[in-house]
Amino acid sequence: MNKWETNFAKLFINTALLMLLAGILLGCLAAASYIWPGFLKQDLGFISLRPMHVSAVLFWILLGASGCVYFGLNQNLPNSINKHLALTQWALWIIAIMGIFFSYFQGKFGGREYWEFEPIWALPILAAWILFLIQFLVQARKMKNWPVYVWMWMTGILFFVFTFTENYLWLIPGFRKEIIGDLTIQWKANGSMVGSWNQILYGTSIFLMDKISGNNKTSTSKVAFFLYFLGFFNLLFNWGHHIYTLPTQPYIRPISYAVSMTEWVFFAKTIYTWKNQLSEAKKHFSFFPYRFLLATNFWVFLNLIQALFMSIPALNLYTHGTHITVAHAMGTTIGINTMIIFATAFMLYTNPCYNFLQGNKQLNRLFWLLQLGLLVFWVSLLGAGVEKGLWQMAESRGNFGDMMNHLRPWFIGFFIGGILLSIAIIGLALNLIWAYIFCRKYPEKEQELKPIE
Amino acid sequence: MKPIYFFLPLVCAFAIFSFRIYSTPIPNQPQFDENTLGQIAKGKLVYQKYNCQSCHQIYGLGGYLGPDLTNCMKEGRNGELLIKTLTQVGTTQMPSFPISESEMENLIAFFKALDQTGNSDPRHFIVSSNGMIAEHE
Ligand code: HEM
What domain count does chain B have? Predict the structure, then answer.
């Protein structure tokens, strides 16, 4: 098979891994403000560290998701990726990343939550995704009877382009004048955008499962398509659960409440397939890509219960604006998105040239450290959130500063959990990067994974 | 049935839904004159330029290190003075900002208008037994 082509999956995943390493470092620095108030305030400070962290880890997810799709495309359609398009897509990302971090370092902002950089840098990102969409459609058209994951990739890429554009409607002053309308559109776009990269990554996990189990039963079944459409329906219409307390169009609240509750179906499905998975798990547990997918299932389970409860408006009054939301945001982006990209990365780099995967004690420890660190991290954020939630709903509230001081033990747990999970991520990422370098040194030993029949 | 027959209707429904949201004004909102509307649009940009959102929230949305600012201009709070002093001298966590006079004017106008759009305090909602919430009259 043509090496150069699989390299696009590697190019994107490697670039993503670098963003991840930067992202966790910046996350730990940002979290330091919770422990030592005013940490680096005169230099970078939380004001710059938070956006830098969030941008870096979002780029990890977006570049990682792109790498996952390239991996899948190449497995399904060997030797067909348009190199110029793919390379231009990557180059646009590099331009955006350099511009964004350069302006963050200079203390220049101007954007909005999660996209706090100067809006001009959104242009190369948008252009990169449009190229990605074109690449994908050109390739996928060659496939007949798309398995469900191809539908999910298409949906994810297409809706990312749409929601990312929608996310910048505020540049038009007319949209900004309507304060509440503007906020509504902002969280409509952000909510659906998360859904779109989730489509890409859930699709990837189905694709990987197919490869591991050696058949395509899951990806062509009616149940898989039903769940895909349910997920898509939620992507389109559930975003209102982010803004229950906003005095916006009155119909948004009941619609998003009702739509969100359909996700109990996913919950029921997870429980229903649990036992099957256990027996399968025994078979493949030593295989790292599989193990990361199993970890994903565990975190889907925990995060889904949490999300379902948070989507009940009466409970959302307690959870909204608290660290419960942060627990949800990082619980899903780490527990689900990051685990799936790791699964893909390990799959990509598992080959006879660097077979570091079976029974490797060090990797084993890193895997469990990641799970443990994340659990400490997540529970601490939940704890802080519950306390703040009770404070914000209490009949007579104390002072904000006193409440934050009170949360300190939770923040210390959050910080420690963050450091543990950072150590694990650094170890895993270095292993992957090392595998990449090692295989380049001995290309003759490298054998690609066989494409799907 | 082919998946596309499910995909397209969903996309159409979404397009109609989105268009409705962009085009219909939000009910029960205060009416501002053109001049104030211009200030609101500029004031929001000041909020973004100095990245207040990395620590503060509006209707519970934003960063989590500082308090929600939706109603910081509420009557009887002297919010204008609070904003001016705090952004000038900062606090333990909050840095000081080189906000110009005209920027400050727009920022204040934005916060004043924001306060009139509603109440971000979750305690004012009435909860019903099906889990739904409604604004207190
Ligand atoms: C793969 C790893 C990570 C991912 C994908 C991730 C993702 C995110 C996301 C999406 C947010 C925005 C949350 C929101 O606004 O609700 C966030 C915020 C944050 N993250 Fe992470 N994160 C990661 C690792 C870490 C680590 C290791 C730390 C260190 C303790 C950390 C500390 C923080 C802090 C302090 C915030 C800001 C919370 C606030 O506004 O107060 N993150 N992260």
Answer: 1
